[in-house]
Amino acid sequence: MRDLRAQVERLLPRVERPARYIDGEWGAVRGREATHRTVLIYPDTYEIGQANQGLAILYERLNAAEGHVAERAYVPWLDMSAEMRAAGVPLFSLESCSAVADFDVVGITLPYELTVTNVLETLDLAAIPLRSADRTEGDPIVLGGGPCAYNPEPVAPFFDAILLGEGEDALLEIVTAHAEARAEGCSRAEALVRLAAVPGVYVPALYAPGSDGRMAPIASAGAPARIVKRALADLGAYPAPRCPVVPYMDVVHDRLTVEVLRGCTRGCRFCQAGMVYRPVRERTADDIVRDVMAGLACTGYEEVSLTSLSSTDHSQLEEVLRRLSMRLDGSGVSISLPSLRVDAFSVSMARLVSGGRKSGLTFAPEAGTQRLRDVINKNVSEDDLLSTVTRAFSEGWRRVKLYFMIGLPTETDDDIRGIGELVTRVLAVTREAVPPADRGSIRIGVSVSTFVPKAHTPFQWDGQIPAEEIARRQEVLRSAMPRKGVDLKWHDADVSFLEGVIARGGREVADAIEAAWRSGARFDAWTERFDLGVWLAAFAEAGLDPAAIASRSFARDEALPWAHLSSGVSDSYLWRERERAVSGTTTPDCSFDGCTGCDACGELGVDIVLGGEARGGG
Hints:
Elements: H1 2-11, E1 36-42, H2 46-49, H3 53-63, E2 68-74, H4 78-87, E3 105-109, H5 116-125, E4 141-145, E5 161-163, H6 167-183, H7 188-196, E6 201-202, E7 207-209, E8 215-217, E9 227-228, E10 256-259, E11 261-262, H8 272-276, E12 281-282, H9 285-299, E13 303-307, H10 317-328, E14 334-336, H11 344-354, E15 361-366, H12 370-375, H13 382-394, E16 399-406, H14 413-433, E17 443-450, H15 467-480, E18 486-490, H16 493-504, H17 509-518, H18 532-541, H19 546-551, E19 565-566, H20 571-583, H21 590-593, H22 600-604, E20 608-610, E21 613-615
Parallel strand pairs: 1-2, 1-3, 3-4, 4-5, 9-19, 10-13, 13-14, 15-16, 16-17, 17-18
Antiparallel strand pairs: 5-6, 7-8, 11-12, 20-21
């Protein structure tokens, strides 16, 4: 261990940002005695991965368990990986500078489709065989999880096991099952069968395509035919990390984060997170205030973010903000909310957390016309947006950012031009709401992403629009946008295309991912590193047509690549929502208007929890 640390230290003077690779941060867990060791890896650089809230929660959870220890590792940047390969230095953990391959379990989160080549870079730098089938008794178990686990098939051959859903309880069950299997002298294959018996765990090696094309368990494996995600019944049983790791260097979202609720039932039909994280479970106001104050006292942060998919939906948010404002008055600590609803309540909440500062507000109308907002079940109107923005600018705000999408099902050019028309009206009301002398300070940011149909959503049966059509619609948008006072940005069409291929593909895509990595694809989520040509060559080498994968539409009874996995929301509900989308019929939010029949509560045995009280659902 000391020898490996010395080898790493010799490389640091030759690389950028050496703080990425050193240990000793405040809050890191070091020196624990353990019989079973797990390393948690985010497949990107330290400054991106250190901010990941999910890994921070699991890190604290494992390190609180007797006999277990968790450490962290990240993907070295290109300069460091080259130096490591040249010097024969394997990928190492931060806390003990141990080789990743020496851990019992290597847990890699799957946050975004374009990090898949970094998964292979991680395994190769660790000297772990890329594919599960090639690993031997001496290799660690490679475990995946996270947002992209809801269609893991494109990366399934690279993982021994994949957790579907929430990990606070499940991860401890997984590492305990592995530790027990190892203590009993089980072989690697036998240990994987043990892991497949843990609810929510998918072991790809135990499954193969059936006669109908669906992935099905191999007869002798005894694995479940259908894997249902894990979900916590009581979010309040797990406080937010009280003393999270505080980095030495600047990282993204460098602040204390406290999760105030989990799940969202707004029902946006394009949103995978809104479907797969159901049902809504809130932390109580008392718990949130307690965790914020404890975290600030331990870390010394000067900003706290109250995080969730929709923080302003929390039933006690106003109470939380008022209590925190009183507790933090005069401390210099600011409170932030990651996103706001398009309503007047959001402006009131923004005023409570602003502390007199008027930075910027962010809203997501998603579509430019009411017709298309009804299709996607975005239950906001143009009047909602205009009145909210008017109120905000009359109260001192001068910047607003608006998020839209193009490529949504049923979209027409009129819908795209509607984005420009809506932005024009927003610009007009902001100018009317401020004194003439302030009009030059108004800034309207418009960010436009391309819709990618994701697994376990009502649009999972729909194909993505072709890359050339994405580019054409972006030009329609550009021509419709006001020329002055608006900063327009959109996602690269090629990036969105590749995201669609990986999001919608099956296990066959793994060959292309490996070919792309072997041809130099790394850090594809970084604009300067993305090269579609490398990927197209990789798909050709694998004998695949990526455009056909991304744009393919599925019939109702066709086998989806992810059909063997369940988020708890039934396919019958998702199909019903798709039919309502086509007819332009909206569906209310079940947290406030009663059960809409998504079946998540019943399937998962978990109730909606608002204000600390459980409310049963369908």
